[in-house]
Amino acid sequence: MKSFARTMRCAGQAFCKVYRFNKPVVLLSLFVYFMVALQSNIGIYLSKRIVDQLSTNNLYLLMGSIALLLSFQLVRLLLETYSQLKSRRMQMAFAVHCENELVDLVAKTELLDKEHPQFTGDFSYWSFINGKYLESYSTVTGLVKQGLIAAVSLGYLLYYHLYIGLLALLVGTLKGIYDLRAVRRRVTINEEMMRQSRGYHYYFDVLTGSQTQKEMTLFQLVPYFREKWLRKKDEANALSMQLETLNLKRQASGELLSIISSGIVIVITALLIYKGSLTIGDYVAITMALTMTESNITMMFASISRLTENAAHIERLNKIESDVHAAARLPEQVEPYPFRFQDELQIRNLTFRYPNRDEPALTDINAEIRKGEMIAILGENGSGKSTLIKLLLGLYRSDTDAILYDGVSVRQLDRIGMWRQTSAVFQDYIRYMTDVRDNIAVGNIAEAHNTDKLLSVLAKVGLSKTFKQGLDTKLGTMEDNAVNLSGGQWQRLALSRVFVSEDHELVVFDEPTSALDPVSEVRLMNEMLEHCRGKTVLMVSHRVGIARRADRIFVMEGGRIAEVGTHDELLRKQGLYQEMWHQQKQWYD
Questions:
Q1: For 363-396, b where at least 16 C-beta lie within 10 A, e where not — what string?
Q2: C-alpha of 227 from chain center
Q3: SS3 category, 363
Q4: Residue 482, Cβ density class (10 Å: 0-12 exposed, 13-18 middle, ≥19 buried)
Q5: From residue 147, how far is each of 142, 154, 295, 385 by CA, in Å?
Q6: Which of 150, 186, 377, 478 could form a disulfide with 296 if both were Cys (CB 3.0 to 4.6 A apart)?
Q7: Angstrom distance (rounded) from CA 204 to CA 478
Q8: How many angstroms separate the Cα of 299 from the Cα of each of 30, 271, 370?
């Protein structure tokens, strides 16, 4: 009973969601379904009359019945065509609406959750679920149509012969119940198929994607990754075959019941015709009504089966949306505080652990960063540098009030307002496959149409003469006339995003010049530091030479800040920093 109530609740939710989106088209569809049900059963009656009138000499009545039947069929065709055209347009618009909601859902999901390996599988499933609202709406309206046709057809059969009507009702119900029994298994297989798909899609992209072809060719990796792709594909195909087998068994069992019931009805009607109780026209009408009754009752159960299956998915999506919105809300606070950074950023006893790891990524971090300071953060790979930066920017949420801007915990701040006053160039910056304008303007999208400013920014990073079509030059591989840049050119374009805005209070550079040649590196570094004069700068780097220019240096090791000081102070300590300094100095001696 709970399952049925859940099905009805989710079906109602889906119908109401589409109804609110476009009421006129929904009402039109319901009207057309009612007319189709009416026409179908009028067609049975007219078919009976035509067959019976063939044995009479009244040509006018025969032609009149034929004309009437064709007229009803023509009206049905026109109504259905018009309704389908309107419905198709509505469905396309509603699909875009649902995709927009999915984009919003992903945007509201915490970055930490989005970076979890499970998220890729979850997103595939979310995309799959997202289409279930429209599918459930179509199923509900189809259920109305099937119910109307089945009810009138069943009444027709019961009028002619009680047992024939009851037989049609029984067979349709048995076929439907058999279909319902497989719902839970189908839901499980579909969910697993969505998760399995990411594996073979990834390996197929590795084999065919333009970004991988250099190593595929040089290292002759195609056979190796082809084997991995085929293995994943076989696993996915095995699940697909399970689902196909389940469906074929259901269909075959249903067809067997239909054959048996049709045989019984043919025998009964043949005997009644032989006795003179029925006419040949009655036989035609009964067999038509039988098929319509049985098939529509079966389809009703199939519709309920789909609604039950979709209800499980929709309820899951409702839970996901609820969890995402709950995670986005601030604890014990209605309104967040506006972001201000005028004095000091404090880090107090910060410990952070990723959800899929046992060991903490950061342990007992304590530090103060004054407004306007340039802080260099050094450390080996995995020492916690990037994790610390994401926490300071509010991209990750700490479980405690360990990070405070001017005495206010980052957990209580308006994060959107905070991000408007911060900028960052990450080591894994995005290469947007659009045009040069977009790739610069993402640093401050409000300046996207400020051509003069964007051109001046392009000059600062040494790319003013690189693009023949200027800011409108297409980049990447999405269009035939696009330009693909070198690694250093892409990094310059990423660095240009910092220069678009003058209002940032905090600027983060994560290995900002790793792909640049030495001359370009020095020139761009000077440009960046001049632009960031008076701002707080966090510079993540492996290069001690860059760190030397900082006001202070944080040296990280094993998720802790092991050393803090200026370049000269840390050299005198003769610790980790001194070791890094001498190791890198050897490159130039």
A1: bebebebebebbbbbbbeeebbbbbbbbbbbbbb
A2: 28
A3: strand
A4: middle
A5: 8, 10, 11, 63
A6: 150
A7: 18
A8: 17, 30, 70
Q: Looking at the predicted structure, is the pLDDT value of residue 551 above 70? A: yes
- Are the C-beta atoms of residues 30 and 147 closer than 8 Å to each other? no
List the structure tokens of 235: 């696993």
Contacts of 455 (CB under 8 A, 6+ apart): 464, 470, 471
**Within a 10 A sphere around the Cβ of 419, how many other Cβ atoms?**
15
What distance in Å separates the CA atoms of residue 259 and residue 256, rounded to the nearest whole number?
5
Number of helices (H) and strands (E) in the chain: give both, helices first.
20, 10
Could you tell me which of 145, 502, 400, 120 has the C-alpha nearest to residue 297? Answer: 145
- What does the radius of gyration of the chain's CA atoms come to, in whole angstroms? 35
pLDDT at 366: 95
Polymer length of the chain: 589
Strand partners, 538: 375, 508
In this prediction, residue 286 has a pLDDT band, given cuts at 50, 70 and 90, of confident
CATH code of 338-421+504-589, in short, is: 3.40.50.300
How far is residue 129's CA from residue 191's CA, in Å, rounded to a whole number? 10
Question: Which of 508, 475, 503 is CA-nearest to residue 489?
Answer: 475
- Compute how many other C-beta atoms are within 10 angstroms of the C-beta atom of residue 102: 16
Partners of 376 in the β-ladder: 539, 553
Task: Give CA–CA dist 252/258, Å, rounded.
Answer: 10
Q: What six digits make up the tokens of 155?
A: 């009444």
Ramachandran region of residue 450, left (φ > 0), alpha (ψ -120 to 50) or beta? beta
Rounded to two decimals, the pTM is 0.72
Answer whether residue 194 shows pLDDT above 80.
no
Report the CATH fold assignment for 2-322: ABC transporter transmembrane region fold (1.20.1560)
**Under 8 Å between Cβ of 159 and 44:** no
User: In the chain, how long is the greatest CA-to-CA distance?
Assistant: 120
Domain spans of the chain, in order of start: 2-322, 338-421+504-589, 430-502
Q: What is the per-residue pLDDT for 183?
A: 67
Mean pLDDT, range 291-305, rounded to an integer: 81
Percentage of the chain exceeding pLDDT 90: 22
| Cβ–Cβ < 8 Å for 350, 366 | yes
Q: Quote the pLDDT of residue 300.
A: 84
Q: What angle do CA 324, 108, 505 make, to 5 degrees?
A: 135
Task: Measure the CA dihedral 339/341/347/351, to 10°.
Answer: 30
The two tokens of residue 438 are 């977009």
Domains 2-322 and 338-421+504-589 share a fold: no
Cα–Cα distance between 312 and 307 in angstroms, integer? 9
User: Which pLDDT does position 217 carry in this prediction?
Assistant: 83
d(CA 344, CA 369) in angstroms, rounded, equals 6
CA-closest candidate to residue 495, choices 450, 517, 529, 528? 528
User: Is 541 exposed, middle or buried, given 0-12, 13-18 or 19+ CB atoms closer than 10 A?
Assistant: buried
| Type of residue found at 295 | S
| Contact criterion met (CB below 8 Å) for 571 and 578 | yes
Query: For 457-496, what is each residue's pLDDT tens digit?
Result: 899 888 888 888 889 999 987 788 888 888 888 888 988 9
- Give the C-alpha separation, 190 to 185, whole Å: 9
